[in-house]
Amino acid sequence: MAYKISSDCISCGACEAECPVGAISAGADKYEIDPGKCIDCGACAGVCPVGAPKAE
Question: What pTM was estimated for this model as a whole?
């Protein structure tokens, strides 16, 4: 089960830098997580200032 970034995302980029497998990239209006690469570690959720990454 992968994490997903909600619409609460403020596009700060903290999650992208923290992801150990490079599953996060900038999308059109918010950051996005590639579910095929996500290892469900939660590192992104731990650094997000607004709690946008959520476990699906």
Answer: 0.92
Q: What is the pLDDT along the chain (56 residues), one digit of tens a residue?
A: 899 999 999 999 999 999 999 999 999 999 999 999 999 999 999 999 999 999 98
Nearest to 53 by CA among 2, 3, 10, 1: 3
Q: Which residues pair with 49 in a beta bridge?
A: none
The CB-based long-range contact list for 28-35 (8 Å cut-off, 24+ gap) reads 30/5, 31/5, 32/5, 33/2, 33/3, 33/4, 33/5, 35/2, 35/4
Please provide residue 12's backbone torsions phi and psi, each rounded to the nearest 5 degrees: -85, -25
